[in-house]
């Protein structure tokens, strides 16, 4: 089948990130989007894919077929059918999209877990990915720059917000949440949380570090958002972090080892159409 | 607390954190994350709830001990035996 067309005009969200005050990257809605070409990715590319996890049973069944035996086993181990479905769609979409970049069949993709469980490509040192999900939405980040971490959170009331603030935010960050009206505290906390998660996921370490010793400046340029990394004040760029809007009612952040490119391409994955063009 | 009481306490915390899940069917030997959709924040919530309810301190480097119900109960047993 011929290569798929570019995203429809107006659907691609390539927004400059050099200016720290630039308009926030906003992911396109999945509905009606078209598939972007997957091959020919440049050497300093960073792509974000939004993946709606709620889909039809027939699509779930087809996506299940591209999973590995261990992924299918894990899918069946969830206690709720909805969780099984979300896992299958998420992993199936990751396989389809990543395999598209590598011009491989999704099922042939060899995914392994890093030391702390971060999924990664086996025998691959030029393409990195990371996946996050919250509610019925997942976001996949693809990078040719270096290791990448991404995190999204649906904005919601946080259980025990004040103790979360104490546990997860640096002393200098806490007033930035606590000074806000009640209705805005959760969102602001989640902005910090997604920055920290994305940054730690870049290095594959998750939350096994004292989060209150990782200090973020949400107003700084991406290359200087990490102010204090567990007692170390980095004077050289370790990772760049910036935020994006995955969808209405969500916050998100992405981090990459090195400098962020001028443009981050944001695209939507649509199960049926993607499958028809790449696999069917 | 006995191991059975610790297990029930952990289940009670999980019921608060994941109210939609039917955790009565949980397999003690399997990782929580393979049975429940627990994210990092939920996980931290478990840690903080244990501290709030029982003053149990769990350092970050020992979070991996809480991977499954069996490993959690085994890890907490010496910390909670006198409660």
TrEMBL record, chain B:
What's this protein's name?
Acyl carrier protein-like
Q: Identify the species of origin.
A: Blastopirellula marina DSM 3645
GO annotation, biological process: lipid A biosynthetic process
State the UniProt keywords alphabetically: Phosphopantetheine, Phosphoprotein
Q: Which InterPro entries does the entry link to?
A: ACP, ACP-like_sf, PP-bd_ACP
A Pfam entry, by short name = PP-binding
- The Carrier domain covers 4-80
- Output the Gene Ontology cellular-component terms: cytosol; membrane
- Gene Ontology molecular function, alphabetical: acyl binding; acyl carrier activity
